[in-house]
Amino acid sequence: MTQISILGCGWLGLPLAKKLIKKGFSVNGSTTSENKLSVLEEAGINPFLVALESESVSESINDFLAKSEILIIDIPPKLRGSNADSSYLSRKIFVEKIQNLIPFVEKSTIKNILFVSSTSVYGDENGIITEETIPNPETESGKQLRLAETLLQKNQNFETTILRFGGLIGIDRHPVTFLAGKENLENPDAPVNLIHQEDCIKIIEEIINRSKWNEVFNAVAPFHPTREEYYTQKAKEQNLVLPKFSLEKSNIKKVISNEKITNSLGYEFRLENY
Known about the structure:
By secondary structure, the protein is an alpha/beta fold. The chain has a single domain (3-171, 193-224, 255-273), classed as Rossmann fold (3-Layer(aba) Sandwich), CATH 3.40.50. The chain contains nine helices and eleven strands. The chain has helices spanning 13-22, 37-42, 61-65, 84-106, 140-154, 176-179, 197-209, 227-237, 259-265, and strands spanning 3-7, 26-31, 46-49, 70-73, 112-118, 127-129, 159-165, 167-169, 194-196, 216-219, 254-256. Strands 3-2-1-4-5-7-10 form a seven-stranded parallel beta sheet, with helices on both faces. It is globular. Residues 3-76 form the 6-phosphogluconate dehydrogenase NADP-binding domain. InterPro entries: 6PGDH_NADP-bd, NAD(P)-bd_dom_sf, NAD(P)-dependent_oxidoreduct. It comes from Flavobacterium aquidurense.
């Protein structure tokens, strides 16, 4: 039985772990909350309390990684915006967390890493964005993720696949709940680039099943209405106050291509989820 360690059993990591267990994998899962250890255990996950800091890593990290062949890293930088005052220090802290983790991975049984990243590493590039597009992050979280990607990709002790998700949505998570009732929202005609939690999980499954390592994948549904069209419709469906968009048209026409992931994995998105 192949064992997988999932660093970060949150919104995506927990249901992913449950699905992998159903598929016959043994799963070690980490959390930073003691209260959540019982939740993981009840789900059949081997629970570990792991705190990844810029200066240290929990002693439990060795046991968390022990006997696993695959490590899935799903810990967001938790920083938004592009405030110059916080840029360097915050970016450095996240990257140091990954730097501190790597030596423990190197001496473990881990052969492959799947790093959950974001299409924010491309910034506001216009046109069709593919995996060949040179990343040009503008937000701090995008910059942190790109630096972390590079650290892992350059390490020869394991093979890393980078999975760049678009905007995350799910049954209990949708951007329209934050946009409802707001006014003068920017970029009304910019296309949306979204991915549902269910597709996220299935794509990760396929990467593991097909051993697609040392790769970069953009994971976004082939569904790109404008922001104004999409969020207005979703607000109506959920009986929310309609968001109001700026009359100024934007120059941002970024469309993330999923051609590689559909061709390489043979994956078909469930568009009814969108």
